[in-house]
Design brief:
8 helices, 7 strands, binds nicotinamide-adenine-dinucleotide, alpha/beta, Rossmann fold
Length: 254
Amino acid sequence: MGSFDGKVALVTGAARGLGRVTALAFAREGARVVLTDIDEAGGARSLELLRAEGGEGIFLRADVRVERDAEEMVGKTVERYGRLDCAVNNAAVVRFAPIVEETSESFDLHVDTNLRGVFYAMKHEIRQMLKNGGGAIVNQSSITGSLTGNANESIYAATKGGVDALTKSVALEVAKNNISVNAIAACGIDAPGDVFHQWMERENIKPEEAGKLFPIGRMGKAEELTAAVLFLCSEQARFIVGHILVVDGGWIAH
Ligand SMILES: NC(=O)c1ccc[n+]([C@@H]2O[C@H](COP(=O)([O-])OP(=O)(O)OC[C@H]3O[C@@H](n4cnc5c(N)ncnc54)[C@H](O)[C@@H]3O)[C@@H](O)[C@H]2O)c1
């Protein structure tokens, strides 16, 4: 028996990194999982891994920047599995540059993917969850945003600060409808290819050295991130409303 038996979970940006490990974690706990991404090859690989473990799921190509795609990903989820219980809005982009070198194209890409994408996704997920009689949403934010800044990541930080603000306000709108909306602010989760690995590469920090940057003395494991996501999606977490849960090995506390 899994703790998400009978539940249907949707994960955006599930073609690699944290989205992939989140989708696999839901499937291990018995959920039927809808994986979405613009990277079809990566999405197919994630689905292959999920099914190899005996999980049930489908992959849909959906661009979070396009409202019609958000509406369709929810519509197809319901068409296939009849409901939507949990949604993890995880897809995002990050490009590193000092502000003096930033461009409007980069600004638009970050805002459209990281912020507009979460708005479209939540709008359509919540419409369905209201019909279901409840649900849980977790937005993948970042410690870089409303909690800390990071040089050369200003536009990304601005979008993640926006995600935190959206999370709190939307959470208040739907709390009485048995829908929880929360966010996770992660840092340093060891999921190769992910944004933290991209940052290490840019800063020329070797993976074996990266763990020493964290008060806990190591990087985070994928299952330490997914445990937090699944907890926020669980019935036991329903009293947690509009919370930004930090999963960072002590980086912020330090
Ligand atoms: N890895 C970390 O330590 C860390 C730290 C802080 C925050 N985060 C956040 O966690 C989430 C996942 O991070 P990650 O490190 O796994 O990133 P990643 O870059 O490895 O994966 C992001 C996924 O989003 C997809 N994507 C990009 N644009 C898309 C679009 N327009 N439509 C649909 N999918 C799109 C990509 O194809 C990719 O599969 C992000 O929101 C990120 O900001 C991660």
